[in-house]
Amino acid sequence: MTSSEAGSRVLPATPRSGAGAGAAADKKREAAAGAALGAAARLRVAVPSVADRVAAELRLQLAEGLLLPGARLTESTIAEDLGVSRNTVREAFAELAAERLVVRHPNRGVFVASLEAGDIHDVYAVRRAIEVSAIRGGGSPERVAAVRAAVEEGKAAAAAGDEEALGNANQHFHGAIVALAGSRRLDTIMAQVLAEMRLFFHKATLDAHFYRGWLADNEEICAALEAGDLNRAGDLLLAYLDRSEERQAAVHGD
Amino acid sequence: MTSSEAGSRVLPATPRSGAGAGAAADKKREAAAGAALGAAARLRVAVPSVADRVAAELRLQLAEGLLLPGARLTESTIAEDLGVSRNTVREAFAELAAERLVVRHPNRGVFVASLEAGDIHDVYAVRRAIEVSAIRGGGSPERVAAVRAAVEEGKAAAAAGDEEALGNANQHFHGAIVALAGSRRLDTIMAQVLAEMRLFFHKATLDAHFYRGWLADNEEICAALEAGDLNRAGDLLLAYLDRSEERQAAVHGD
DNA sequence: GATTGAAGAATCGTTGAACAATCCGAACTT
DNA sequence: AAGTTCGGATTGTTCAACGATTCTTCAATC
Predict the structure, then answer these.
(1) B175 and B93 inside one domain
(2) Cα-trace Rg, chain A
(3) Which residue of A has its CA nearest to B103?
(4) Are A72 and A124 found together in one domain?
(5) Domain CATH for A209
(6) pLDDT tens profile A206-244
(7) What is residue B111's three-state secondary structure?
(8) With an 8 Å Cβ cutoff, are B126 and A40 in contact?
(9) Among A191-195, A202-206, B99-103, which stretch is predicted with the lowest mean pLDDT?
């Protein structure tokens, strides 16, 4: 289950000089750089470092479920697969470890993080704090509109029966709620938490009913928000998060 | 202003084998490992890696104000000063960058982070979200007692006229409030935010009046918490944070 | 005099190789 | 079957090297 089976891709972006540089196929998909929400928010059009690109690649594989929780990531294997040096991979690991996507076991290696029963409550504690606070603070019309857009995105996905799009829409919804606060730090914290949960969800694959519930909740919450009834919106969101946590705990928990 | 002037110390903990290993004075102060709140929370008595120790050392110098915001941290200099390799320093930087204590400017180096006007609001947004949520959720008697302890610690420090202790007490107070929620993640987020603010406060050095206000607020908040009036405690805390932010914004100006 | 441009120095980014420390599993003993 | 020893695999850390960038300096040009 190491990454050698799943990922034999090559890194995007321009190669520098590199000596042997194993695989040389450099497909240009630099455009993906725009989606960097959790990235280091670098000024201008700075080229992301190789380490950053490695981290991004791994993050992607993590999100896609190619790397399952508990899987081991061997430095040398990944270094070879991606055509970079071990040191660089190591730096990428540091980045991912800071985001809690992987855990380092000293002298044993890094493993894809896996949420324990206790972590569920923990993650939801963060979400409750951040999301409820954000929605209670309200936000500019544009930001509220972004929340609405996410709700509609979810409905459309549901109508189309696209499960993956539905999941994404839900994440957009909650991300948009946090964005109401207009805080870079809250945004990145939320992005990290969502990334953690995404990792987690791959196991307890989600059924259709799951989503139906979300949709109704999201609609109701969004409506309250639009109506300016922030307290009600906050209460609804809080209730939703409690229920969601409960369900997660039931599916996974002890 | 580089670190070479201020920090010519040596790293704590046991040396391994290291070839040339410049300075060989290995003072044993391993006991300091217990204070690692923001650390990676490693199981058992695992020896922190060298990179971790470098990061800890830098974190310390940052907290002590030896490294002022905007100061440049040169890899090779620090590597020499601390008697470790450049690569290791680099890994430590990654850790600190993830905590926002330093910023990386590609191809230019890493610099001690400095909060801009916008960051003030940002940081307080995080604090509002986390602290208020935590206090509204209440906590076990032991945790409430911890909050009380922090309040008393502050009073004692004030009586003794120890400014530094006063500042620490205040941080303990707010840390204890977050700890009410019993969430590892919230604790580390809070620890990071406080570390960021500590960095910042070194500039706008704090006068006595500053603290007096805190003390009264803390007492009142704690009292409400102990009385079980969580809503009131939350409101008070929120008001305090708003005032605090305002003051900070004024001192530091936009 | 101010702008432009071309060396030059200082660092960073990344690599490759090396070796001790550590962990894991398997063969081997008792 | 339980305990011990041994070897292999991988991590932790260091060192040395080199291209790539950025900053600085300084001279040449308009």
Answers:
(1) no
(2) 20
(3) A40
(4) no
(5) 1.20.120.530
(6) 555 666 778 899 999 999 999 999 999 999 999 999 998
(7) strand
(8) no
(9) A202-206
Cβ–Cβ under 8 Å, residues A225 and A233: yes
Are B167 and B128 in a shared domain?
A: yes
User: Is pLDDT at A14 greater than 50 in this prediction?
Assistant: no
With an 8 Å Cβ cutoff, are B181 and A98 in contact?
A: no
Lowest-confidence range among A166-180, B34-48, B146-160, B207-221? B34-48
Q: Which two tokens stand for residue A120?
A: 């569920």
Nearest to A185 by CA among B100, B203, B105: B100
| Stretch among A248-252, B25-29, B169-173, B177-181 having the lowest mean pLDDT | B25-29
Residues A41 and A125 placed together within one structural domain of the fold: no
Do B104 and B13 lie in one domain? The reply is yes
Does position B34 have pLDDT exceeding 60, yes or no?
Answer: no
Half-sphere exposure of A223 (CA within 13 A, CB side): 7
Same domain for B234 and B121? yes
- Do B121 and B245 sit in the same domain of this protein? yes
**A63, A81, A112 - which closes a domain:** A112
**β partners of residue B109:** B105
Q: Is the dihedral of CA B185, B186, B190, B193 positive or negative?
A: positive
Q: List all nucleotides in chain D with at least one atom under 7 A from a protein Cβ.
A: 10-17, 19-23
Nearest to A183 among B99, B126, B183 (CB): B126
Protein residue nearest nucleotide C18, by CA to C1': B19
To the nearest whole number, what is the mean pLDDT of chain A?
Answer: 80
Distance of CA A173 to the CA centre of its chain: 13
List the single range of A19-28, B106-115, B117-126, B199-208 with lowest mean pLDDT: A19-28
- At residue B66, the pLDDT reads 87
Range of the domain at B106: 3-112
What is the maximum span of chain B, computed from C-alpha positions, in angstroms? 62
Interface of chain B toward chain A, CB-CB under 8 angstroms: 40, 42, 46-47, 49, 51, 87, 90-91, 94-95, 97-100, 104, 106, 121-123, 125-126, 128-130, 132-134, 181-186, 189, 193
